């Protein structure tokens, strides 16, 4: 994953739990990096190790850490100068979700080693849709839940999301019911 992701994890932990918590998480995760370079690619293991260590240090489940990070990510990326790019995704939550693959295509121009997930929206109505999440990375479905919640905040839309199929339980991909 890119340093931008790991830097956002650091910013989330420091803003909510303080620098000492971040230092302990880095130590437990075996991460020696003094700082993460946003545009540099890092092994996925670093991010997974940080999530595991954060879970242990903060007394949260890995799913809770990933969900909190997903919510934070939406705000963080907008604050870090990607707000205009996010605006290209659409002017409503359902439109944005339907444009996620296009958004990732634009981002991959800047981040050439990006391995983005893919998304498909089905059963789209005025009040809900099914979001299908395909990724080469395992275990990140809770982050999708947080991302959708963060997007709800971004679009000032009350949203609920529930996972209806799980790759962890043998489904071919993760699926979510998103109500807005």
Question: In a few lines, what is going on in this structure?
Answer:
This protein is α+β, with helices and mostly antiparallel strands and about 180 residues long. It has two domains: about 5-60; about 65-180, H-NOX domain (Alpha-Beta Complex), CATH 3.90.1520. It has helices at about 5-15, 20-30, 45-60, 60-85, 95-100, 100-110, 140-155; strands spanning about 120, 130-135, 160-165, 175-180.
Describe the structure.
The chain has 180 residues and is α+β, with helices and mostly antiparallel strands. It contains seven helices and four strands. It has helices at residues 3-17, 19-29, 44-58, 62-87, 93-98, 100-110, 141-154, and strands at residues 118-122, 128-134, 160-165, 174-179. The radius of gyration is 16 Å and the shape is globular. The two termini are 30 Å apart.
Return the average pLDDT rounded to an integer. 93
CATH secondary-structure class of the largest domain: Alpha Beta
- CATH architecture assignment of the largest domain: Alpha-Beta Complex
- SS elements, strand count: 4
Poorly predicted runs? none
In percent, how helical is the residue content?
A: 40-55%
Distance between the termini: 30 Å
């Amino acid at each position: 994953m890119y340093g931008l992701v790991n830097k956002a994890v650091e910013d989330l932990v420091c803003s909510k739990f303080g620098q000492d918590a971040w230092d302990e998480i880095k130590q437990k995760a075996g991460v020696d990096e003094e700082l993460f370079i946003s545009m540099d690619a890092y092994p996925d293991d670093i991010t997974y190790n940080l999530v595991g260590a954060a879970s242990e240090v903060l007394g949260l489940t890995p799913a809770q850490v990933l969900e909190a990070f997903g919510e934070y990510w939406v705000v963080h990326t907008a604050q870090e100068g990607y707000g205009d790019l996010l605006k290209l995704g659409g002017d409503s939550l359902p439109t944005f979700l339907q444009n996620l693959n296009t958004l990732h295509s634009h981002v991959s121009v800047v981040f050439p080693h990006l391995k983005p997930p893919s998304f498909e929206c089905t059963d789209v109505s005025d009040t809900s849709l099914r979001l299908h999440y395909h990724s080469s990375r395992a275990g990140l479905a809770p982050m999708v839940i947080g991302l959708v919640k963060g997007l709800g905040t971004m679009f000032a839309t009350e949203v609920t999301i529930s996972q209806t199929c799980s790759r962890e339980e043998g489904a071919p991909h993760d699926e979510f019911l998103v109500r807005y």
